[in-house]
Amino acid sequence: MKKGTKRKATQDQPKPSQENKKPRAKRATPQSEPEYFEDKRNLEDLWTETFPVGTEWDQLDSVYQFKWDFSNLENAFEEGGILYDKKVYLFGCTEPQLVMFKGESKVVCIPVVVAVVSPFPPSDKIGINSVQREAEEIIPMKQMKMDWVPYIPLENRDSQVDRLKSQIFILRCTQRRSALKHLKLDRLKKFEYCLPYFYQPFKEDELEQSTEVQIIYPAEPKPVFCEFDWELDELEEFTDKLIEEEELSEDQKDAFKEFVKEKVREAKKANREAREARRKAIEEMSEETKAAFEKMRFYKFYPVPSPDAPDVSNVKSPFINRYYGKAHEVL
């Protein structure tokens, strides 16, 4: 072959004979048992989708460490149940309690779901209160990245949300846990002091009836913490007792008394304003809204006993929080 010429590829080169090849034995694969998966219940994740308001961020994972059974909540929406065919607003909370589980007693964050039967949202506000904070705050819940959103049952999740006439609304928080490290401590703590707020205009608030004031007097070397009841306590005797107990120095007596008087004036004014606001709210309310408030019902759901979680039957309480008061029924 001359240099520089290309060699023509042969098309008809013989292939290895297939006849002489021995067939490879196939390894028998054992027949695997068919797997069965339990069908998901239509409202199975309803309680987990409902945000547990006021729970410390570092405790959230511990709430879901057990397989809590809220089938009582799911059944309440079935025909014949107390929530069937009703418009319902749900929010969650947690209650730390000492309970038994598998022979051991331990403190557990028990998840609770409160159902409010109402034709409109019970409130668009959140209360922020704690022992450390001097005064409570009532703020729009959106400031804490919370809002009422429609809950879509599992069988409807492929449908367009706007076409569904949802009867179930849940309180949802959109604050991402991954972003918590960027929040200032005070803002972070606010989430832990949150309480779902509710204002019942037909019921006198406990603060309107209260005759007590919390006193935090900035004395030296340490502040004076006490409660003064303007109906039961006599200011002169009250102050002398603090001096006798060495909580207050003699030279601060007059200044302390003036401080208490000012706090009492502020509290009385706040009580008057609250009563006036309630009276005005009732006056301006439509008959339809009045009827809705009077028919509004609160149901408090605890998990039912199951082998996968502690039994909480003995620690149930009708109390929801200081704004909602007590539930009409505990389940």
Walkthrough of the structure:
This protein is an alpha+beta fold. 23% of the residues lie in helices and 22% in strands. The chain contains eight helices and 13 strands. It has helices at residues 46-49, 60-63, 71-76, 185-192, 206-209, 235-244, 253-284, 287-295, and strands at 88-101, 104-117, 125-128, 137-140, 146-150, 168-173, 194-196, 212-217, 224-229, 297-301, 319-321, 325-326, 329-330. It has a six-stranded mixed β-sheet, with no helix packed on it. It has a three-stranded antiparallel β-sheet with strand order 4-3-7. Strand 1 (88-101) and strand 2 (104-117) form a beta hairpin. Helix 6 (235-244) packs across helix 7 (253-284). The N and C termini lie far apart (97 Å).
Question: In brief, what are we looking at here?
Answer:
The chain is α+β, with helices and mostly antiparallel strands.
Please give a handful of descriptors for the protein shown.
globular; single chain; alpha+beta; 331 residues
Helices and strands in order:
Blueprint: H1 46-49, H2 60-63, H3 71-76, E1 88-101, E2 104-117, E3 125-128, E4 137-140, E5 146-150, E6 168-173, H4 185-192, E7 194-196, H5 206-209, E8 212-217, E9 224-229, H6 235-244, H7 253-284, H8 287-295, E10 297-301, E11 319-321, E12 325-326, E13 329-330
Parallel strand pairs: 1-6, 10-13
Antiparallel strand pairs: 1-2, 2-10, 3-4, 3-7, 5-6, 8-9, 11-12
Helix pairs in contact: 6-7
